[in-house]
Design a protein that fits this description.
Helix content is 30%, strand content 32%. Bound molecules: flavin-adenine dinucleotide.
Length: 379
Amino acid sequence: MEKYTFIFAGAGLSSLMTVYEMIQSGLFSEQKILLIDANSKKTNDRTWSFWEKEGGEFDSIVIQKYQTAFFKSNRFSRKLDLQPYVYKSIRGVDFYNKIFELLSQQPNVAFIEARISNYSETNEGIAVETNLGTYYGEKLFNSLYNPNPVASQTKYPLVQQHFIGWFIKTKNPIFTPETATFMDFSINQKDTTRFMYVLPTSKTEALLEYTLFSPDLLKKEEYETGIVDYIKNLGITEYEIIEEEHGNIPMTCYPFWKHNTQNVLNIGSAGGWTKASTGYTFKNTTKKSKEVVRFLQNHSDFRKFHKDNKFWFYDLLLIDILFRRNEIGSTIFSSMFRKAKASLIFKFLDEETSLWEDLKVIWQCPKMPFLKAVWQRIF
Ligand SMILES: Cc1cc2nc3c(=O)[nH]c(=O)nc-3n(C[C@H](O)[C@H](O)[C@H](O)COP(=O)(O)OP(=O)(O)OC[C@H]3O[C@@H](n4cnc5c(N)ncnc54)[C@H](O)[C@@H]3O)c2cc1C
């Protein structure tokens, strides 16, 4: 029976990023690593966007960079100067190809395309059951998201970032390729938090996403009508849809880390690596995967991996508000983006601000809903 040191359940963003960091460190070349995924990861299933300072690790596969971005609401429109950050987009398939190419050069790393049905822990380690048989390992990185623990409790509400995106090509030039539309809340809110997100890649091509931060999903037609209306409002009459993507990202402060055991570390969205207040996961995953490698150099008990921080509490308050009073989401985000510098907001969302800087961002937001949320959490 072959036994691996590390098994990755799933080979999506968090697993590939973590194994990438393990390889970069050069510390794991003697250990057998297995990745298992039901999908061969050969097609483009998503576009990841994130902000970072110039000179990023994945710049070779970045398809577009934005130095400026619009924030719009019914009351104002502001062109944000993102410096020193740059907003970048990466196609999922380019990331998968890059990492799988690296994996193919590592004699100690294997990939199996199989559907995982279960995993269990025994005294000897981990057993991962799949449609192709059972695989054994000492440690498991689990990125298979299980919605049940979140759904079966009420202490940590679940808001979802749900969207459909169309990548379109227009007949006439209309877009400004160097400026993204980060959030456009000027669309009909229908008593929920919804906005358009536009990422142009040329004067005639852009990804347009109709996005909600809300507890309940919509029917497919409703997202699509939202995109069609928006395209019409931009004055576009002739276009074709080149690609479509959709997503439903969990925004919750549920303590996923409580499910970590000595030998199982939940990673990615399954491990709470998705920033609850925004749904962004890519950037956080680049940080967390580096943390995993540092952690493994001195520790072996995954129950010690998690660390609390103040940003978890800030996110908790925002999610509480969005869950209870979803209709005020636009007002909250608009107040935040109305005056504060984009670089400060990005630093805050990256969880790198000092307490003084936190206050500068939080102070922009409407006070009553947050005070009420604090009160409700404490009492
Ligand atoms: C369309 C879309 C766009 C997004 N855009 C952004 C963005 O712009 N910026 C950002 O920061 N975040 C974005 N996200 C959120 C987040 O970055 C992604 O969801 C990210 O892929 C999460 O990483 P993960 O490792 O947790 O999950 P995944 O990348 O989804 O990996 C999980 C893997 O598990 C596999 N799997 C699932 N079940 C099984 C099973 N039973 N057996 C075997 N394999 C299984 C899946 O095939 C998958 O490969 C987006 C998400 C989506 C869906």
